[in-house]
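Lab notebook, design round three. We kept the backbone fixed and only want residue identities now. Task for the bench partner: fill in a sequence for the structure below.
Input structure tokens:
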């Protein structure tokens, strides 16, 4: 659905993330549980190229709003 809405957005790159970007070691076990999948092996070390993402540009430039402001509420609604 987001892809269709994005067709009308101004040219540029927008991160579509929630207001509480979480580390994979935090959200991946929860997501696996929601899916009924085994919890993957977690490697807590971060690589130097990894960085966080922000939805600031999408919210401020195009008025994008989140259906679920955090992954915690979004996963529980699945």
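Proposed sequence:
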């Amino acid at each position: 659905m987001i892809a269709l809405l994005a067709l009308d957005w101004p040219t540029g790159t927008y991160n579509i993330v929630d207001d509480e970007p979480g580390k994979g070691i935090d959200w991946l076990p929860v997501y696996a549980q929601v899916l009924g999948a085994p919890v993957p092996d977690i490697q807590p070390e971060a690589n130097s190229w990894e960085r966080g993402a922000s939805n600031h540009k999408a919210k401020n430039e195009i008025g994008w709003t989140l259906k679920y402001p955090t992954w915690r509420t979004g996963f529980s609604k699945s």
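Keep this in mind before ordering anything: The helical segments are 2-6, 24-35, 56-62, 71-76.
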